[in-house]
Amino acid sequence: VRTKSDRVDVEVIGPAEALELETECGSGLCQWLAGDFLFHCHVAHHYVAGMWGYWRVYNTLQVPGMQNDVMPAMRELPDRIGRIHTPVTSDQLIGKTVNWFGKKFTITEKGKTNWKSEPAQVTLKDWVSMQLTNPGKPGHKDDELGQLMAYDATVIDWVWDGNKALSEKEPTLGENPKYKAEWQGYKAGERRAIWFEPSTGKVAWPWLTPHFGKRPPRPNDHNGAPWLEMIRLNDDGSRSVEPARPGENGPWSLCPDRAGSQKYNVHFVKLPI
Ligand SMILES: [Cu+2]
After folding, report:
1. CA of 46 to the centre of ligand 1 (A)
2. How much distance in Å is there from the Cα of 12 to the middle of ligand 1?
3. Nearest Cα residue to 156 out of 241, 165, 125
4. Sign of CA dihedral 142, 144, 148, 152
5. pLDDT given for residue 223 in this prediction
6. From ligand 1's centre to the CA of 150, what distance in Å?
């Protein structure tokens, strides 16, 4: 929707020039995506020299005591008061009906998930685990150093405490100049509750804290869009290992319902350099 100016893909600027950008649909753009956007100069010598950054988009209020990272707290914009909520822990999602632009889900404590009901009834355990990396111990190790040395991206050591999803343990090893658990009110070596946005039920971004030297985990099943397209089902309702189908996540899907798709084979040839 054009409201202010022409849409552009590329804008060339030279040294000492500045340009002000205003994105469509707010910080998460029109996908309403929370996450980390990598932005960078397209000149190779420039981006390797540091001309890049992360554009972090939160989905919960970043006010003292409820922040997802160690960045400065942020005040609500005066014309958008009340639109962004404070987070809840997973047990507080039970009984809630969450709304994804009109597609609704009720999160239940017990019983079986029923995707076909209206709204869909999804157990808390299914709801949370489809969003996160598979739970487990990296390298099948219990200790922090063993998990770090395992270089295992398939699982992270998050756990359930009843209906409360808890993070992996906060780091104790190494001197990370950019992060200490205490800075965020967490305790080194202990777990903390994973937070969720209450109106959508989606995990509050970012849900991991830095662990110096540890390999970043993959989403479950290598899902390319774990935050936007967490629902990927087989016909029998079990979790698929394929990416979500067009429209499968309702109006919040990356591709609209009935969008066509084309598969391509990619061939790799090993060459000495
Ligand atoms: Cu540059």
Report:
1. 5
2. 11
3. 165
4. positive
5. 92
6. 37
